[in-house]
């Protein structure tokens, strides 16, 4: 079967289209899935480029959407023909976080979904949202579930809340759609006026170009009458100080990305004075994903897929992500 593998050390120039053995029939508790779609995340980019080293010959891509082809003994949740989507932490079924690494994450610690077929435990998947194609379904695994857990599962988002989003990548645009579905008001920053206009069309209310307004925290605080309730913080140390300026006293900063680096100064005095809850998080559990799917079925929104690449052009897809050209998600068809 057709697959992409990453020879160690990884780099986009070394992504290899190869032929792997078919995984065969599912055993007890397993399902066989024909994988038809995936989407790119910065975690996948880190593995593909070798910045997050993985095993030699690793099959990349954490997100996988497809169709059940066979079920093993004891599987009752799925049937042949079901549309399913993978879980980022296949062993984290419910409850509080149990993992602090990626040792069991597809595309990193174990083989991912840049291949035509997989046989995995049934508990490594959920049903896909109704009416989603495989690429759209794959978009919920990492970016979508991260935004859902941050705002809803952990943040308790409610109608009328004010939310600040940074940039227009996959997590931020998912968060915009979720916030609007839940009746929240959204401010969003970007360096691109064209992307800001697209965000406005999706319901963002207050938009700022951070190149033109580098001290955007105070502007957001003024717009939100004292500070926003939630910040989905994807930048990390380079943007955190402005996010603290923007959030209300007792607000919530959801730290889910480090696009500006992995270390730096944090204005701890201001963080304490504002009594802000700063929470780091990585994606979510299978139960979180099942709740998210139910919400999507009720809410009727679909992810924004900027462009789809065939599996054979995965390196070109990553180069588009590297250049920051995308709005929302970049898809891969398999």
UniProtKB/TrEMBL annotation:
Molecular function per GO: oxidoreductase activity
InterPro entries with a match to the protein in the record: ADH-like_C, ADH-like_N, ER, GroES-like_sf, NAD(P)-bd_dom_sf, Zinc_ADH-like
Domain Enoyl reductase (ER): 10-332
Source domain of life: Bacteria
Gene3D superfamilies: Medium-chain alcohol dehydrogenases, catalytic domain, NAD(P)-binding Rossmann-like Domain
Pfam families: ADH_N, ADH_zinc_N
Matching PANTHER family: PTHR45033, ZINC-TYPE ALCOHOL DEHYDROGENASE-LIKE PROTEIN C1773.06C
The protein's name: NADPH:quinone reductase-like Zn-dependent oxidoreductase
Organism classification: Bacteria, Pseudomonadati, Pseudomonadota, Alphaproteobacteria, Sphingomonadales
């Amino acid at each position: 079967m057709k697959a992409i593998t990453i020879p160690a050390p990884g780099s986009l120039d070394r992504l290899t289209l190869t032929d792997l053995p078919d995984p065969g029939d599912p055993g007890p508790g397993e399902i066989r899935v024909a994988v038809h779609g995936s989407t790119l995340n910065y975690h996948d980019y880190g593995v593909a480029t070798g910045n997050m080293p993985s095993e030699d010959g690793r099959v990349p891509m954490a997100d996988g959407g497809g169709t059940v082809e066979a079920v093993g003994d004891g599987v009752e949740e799925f049937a042949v023909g079901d549309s399913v989507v993978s879980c980022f932490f296949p062993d984290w079924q419910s409850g509080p976080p149990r993992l602090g690494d990626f040792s069991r994450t597809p595309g990193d610690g174990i083989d991912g979904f840049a291949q035509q077929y997989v046989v995995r435990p049934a508990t490594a998947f959920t049903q896909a949202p109704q009416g989603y194609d495989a690429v759209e379904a794959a978009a919920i695994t990492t970016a979508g579930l991260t935004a859902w857990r941050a705002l809803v599962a952990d943040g308790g988002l409610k109608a009328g809340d004010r939310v600040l989003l940074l940039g227009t990548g996959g997590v931020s645009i998912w968060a915009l759609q979720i916030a609007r579905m839940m009746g929240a008001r959204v401010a969003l920053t970007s360096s691109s006026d064209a992307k800001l206009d697209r965000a406005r069309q999706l319901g963002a209310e207050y938009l700022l170009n951070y190149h033109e307004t580098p001290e955007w925290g105070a502007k957001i605080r003024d717009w939100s009458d004292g500070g926003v309730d939630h910040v989905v913080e994807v930048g990390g140390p380079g943007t955190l100080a402005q996010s603290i300026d923007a959030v209300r006293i007792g607000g919530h900063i959801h730290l889910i990305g480090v696009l500006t680096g992995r270390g730096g100064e944090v204005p701890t005095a201001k963080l304490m004075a504002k009594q802000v809850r700063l929470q780091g998080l990585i994606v979510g559990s299978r139960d979180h994903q099942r709740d998210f799917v139910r919400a999507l079925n009720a809410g009727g929104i679909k992810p924004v897929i900027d462009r789809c690449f065939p599996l054979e052009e995965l390196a070109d897809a990553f180069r588009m992500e590297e250049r920051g050209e995308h709005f929302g998600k970049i898809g891969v068809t398999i």
